[in-house]
Amino acid sequence: MDISQSSIREFFENPLLWLESNASRIIFLIIVLVVTAVVVKVVTKGMRLALDKTDIPSASIFINIVRVLLWVLAASIVLQPVFGINPTTLMTALGVGGIAVSFGLKDTIANIIGGFGLMLGKVVQPGDLVSINGATGIVKDVTWRHTIVVERAGNEMWIPNSVLNTAALEKMPEPIESMTTIPFTVRGGKDVDTDAIAAAIIESVQATTKDIMLPDNPPLVKFSGFSPYGIEGKVLLFTKPGVLLSTMQDRAARAIAGKGFLVQNAAPEDDDEATPVISA
After folding, report:
1. pLDDT tens, 140-177?
2. Helix (H) or strand (E) holding 160
3. In this protein, which residues make up the domain named Mechanosensitive ion channel transmembrane helices 2/3 (predicted)?
């Protein structure tokens, strides 16, 4: 299947004759493509299984590299017998042209190198819970160009690997990422039993948030100080992955609303009033 001008002209002038004269080359090309496709599928599947059993990150960047190498090997096999192109000559030409191309692809090259640096250095791996420049989520994959981070709300952030190598990155434990708070104020007085109040708040909140609570992380009550209205505190809540923190806040606020020991209208109703209005 020579790609010279005479071969191209023969293809257009007499396709049947061209097919007859190049039948063996076409068959060889098809066989190589089919075998390569099967090998790529088997090898990539085997790599995924093998990576899952080791401490090597099972990111797609490794599998993609192997896939490309297999197809490059297949191309080198068919170049000379099918297309009449000497692989050495082609590589030499690509080497000369590659210098110019590399300038246009410098960002892509930086991202590929950055991706390998992230994975081999185990900076980030699929499944890690990370915070990057204030955005928090779980690392889904590290590809040629990007690291994919999925936020709690389901949004996917595609962060260039070269940027990730220079950005501030923080690995977070699950309870910290899942935590949200509900502030409250307890009526002051000498007979205030903070332990009993904390237990009542936890019982109410836990009853309404048990199905969305992070396992083994029940609500906590922390008292933080004092104000003219009473004792200041917070309920610390830990939410399951995939559940919005606002959903947890809503349920918890509804659970403690109306509790008689809480100050729930600390602001004066009239700006001219000097005394705060406190109601249950």
Report:
1. 888 877 888 998 888 888 888 888 777 778 888 888 98
2. strand 156-160
3. 64-106
